[in-house]
Automatic annotation (TrEMBL), chain A:
It comes from Roseivirga thermotolerans. Residues 12-153 form the Cytochrome c assembly protein domain. It is a multi-pass membrane protein. Pfam families: Cytochrom_C_asm. This is Cytochrome c assembly protein. It is found in: Membrane. Coiled coil: none annotated. Keywords: Cytochrome c-type biogenesis, Membrane, Transmembrane, Transmembrane helix. Signal peptide: none annotated. The chain crosses the membrane at residues 39-61, 82-101, 113-131, 143-162, 189-207. InterPro entries: Cyt_c_assembly (IPR002541), Cyt_c_biogenesis_CcsA/CcmC (IPR045062).
Length: 220, 226
């Protein structure tokens, strides 16, 4: 039972945040109206994706230092989970954009950047599949993981802020959420939701890693 | 003393790269011909008379041509090295010297190729550049950045079996942020707007180049060992 508490926490947080996102009182803002509730899905899933991808890179560095195949498995699965949340984030963002910006894909700087970020991690998965030898696969893909992460930082956090045409809040003169509308009512759901999605990602990773460990043990 | 030694090592390796390139001139000639025929294909397919293309498309087309030339010429840096020769280097020099010498050599090669490319390109497509000095500076920075990123990525791709497809898949998404900045800088130079307006873009480009060099320098020893 000792190890189960965070899974219970994950379920409780997610039920709370989904109910809270749909039912709690939300601020009334022009254009956004009720779609502000998507904040608890779209933005929190992106946060979870970033956390999962950072963890993946940390395990890639750990693998390079230790050469333990277990670290590589973890790194790959965290990247997989990150890609899943990235796709969910893009889809929820497109739904939101359809209602507020008028079309699901408007070539916004951040939309393009996130699509490229997904391409980078899909390339990572292709690279993994095209290497045969296990040690070499682990080493080369860990190197690409770190290299790609270094390219991801300017892509997601610097370049979108340099353009003056982004529709996202916080870019090109649009005030960030913090400036006026992420009031305490939203925060009460927003932060638990980030934790909930991240825990769900970790849960997925732990299941897949256990399957992989069993497969490897069976092969040996 | 150690830094002087590694400097000498790097210089020897760079001169070795130059000499081996010079000995098999067909590769170099092939690259220049690739560049020239790509430019000519673009010229023919737009079927234009000199100077009728919009400045925005002129710029984008130029950088796409340079990108593909870079992928084709730098990709061979590790893929074409014979296995036995790599093992020989391994016993002689430090991995850091190898990656730095390759970065220096391919940056110089890319600068040469992009300048030749610019010459051909402006001959057939016209040259709307207003601030030539800044445009050349962008070319220098771009060649350096593209060469560095592609050298490291070709090292990664050379480990896999289908390396020629893989290099494109791996490199394009990683290079896009760099390419976006390059296109933005060179568009500003093209329009000849006040230089102080986009110096921060140039600085960001330099910073991204620095990140790529630093990461390659740190990661290459691990790649080398496998």
């Amino acid at each position: 039972m000792k190890k189960k508490w965070w899974k219970v926490l994950c379920i409780v947080l997610l039920i709370y945040s989904i109910l809270g996102a749909l039912l709690f009182d939300a601020p009334r803002l022009a254009i956004l109206n009720e779609t502000i509730r998507n904040l608890h899905f779209h933005v929190t899933m992106w946060f979870a994706m970033i956390i999962l991808l950072v963890t993946s890179t940390i395990y890639a560095i750990k693998y390079l230092r230790s050469n333990r195949i277990d670290h590589d498995t973890l790194s790959a699965e965290f990247a997989n989970a990150g890609v899943l949340f990235g796709i969910l984030g893009i889809v929820t963002g497109a739904i939101w954009a359809n209602f507020t910006w008028g079309e699901p894909w408007s070539g916004d700087a951040k939309q393009n950047s996130s699509a490229i970020a997904l391409l980078i991690y899909l390339a990572y998965l292709v690279l993994r599949n095209s290497l045969e030898d296990q040690q070499q696969k682990a080493r080369v893909s860990a190197i690409y993981n770190v290299f790609a992460f270094a390219a991801l930082i300017p892509l997601l956090f610097i370049l979108p802020r340099m353009t003056d045409s982004s529709l996202h809040p916080g870019n090109g003169g649009n005030p960030g959420f913090n400036a006026y509308d992420l009031d305490s009512r939203l925060r009460m759901v927003f932060y638990p939701a980030i934790l909930g999605w991240t825990l769900l990602g970790v849960w997925l990773v732990s299941l897949r890693v256990r399957i992989k460990r069993i497969k490897m043990a069976l092969e040996d | 003393m150690q830094s002087i030694d590694s400097m000498r090592e790097i210089l020897t390796l760079v001169s070795k790269e130059f000499r081996s390139e010079w000995r098999q001139k067909y590769a170099l000639n092939g690259m220049i011909l690739y560049l020239a025929s790509t430019i000519f294909v673009c010229y023919m397919s737009f079927s234009l008379k000199t100077g009728t293309i919009h400045a925005l498309s002129w710029n984008a087309l130029f950088w796409i041509i340079i990108l593909f030339t870079a992928v084709n010429s730098v990709a061979k840096s590790f893929i074409q090295e014979a296995d036995g020769r790599m093992l020989y280097y391994y016993s002689l020099v430090k991995p850091e010297s190898i990656i730095l010498s390759k970065i220096i050599y391919y940056s110089l090669l890319m600068m040469g190729l992009s300048l030749i490319g610019l010459f051909f390109y402006s001959m057939v497509m016209g040259n709307p550049v207003n601030d030539l000095a800044m445009f050349l500076l962008t070319i220098v920075l771009a060649s350096f950045g593209l060469a560095t990123a592609l050298t490291m990525l070709s090292g990664i791709a050379s480990k896999a079996s289908n390396s020629s497809t893989l290099i494109a898949v791996l490199s394009f998404p990683v290079i896009i942020p760099m390419l976006l900045l390059i296109i933005r800088c060179s568009k500003n130079a093209l329009d000849g707007i006040e230089r102080s307006v986009y110096t921060d873009q140039l600085l960001t480009l330099i910073a991204i180049n620095a990140i790529v060099v630093a990461v390659s320098y740190l990661l290459f020893p691990y790649l080398w060992r496998s």
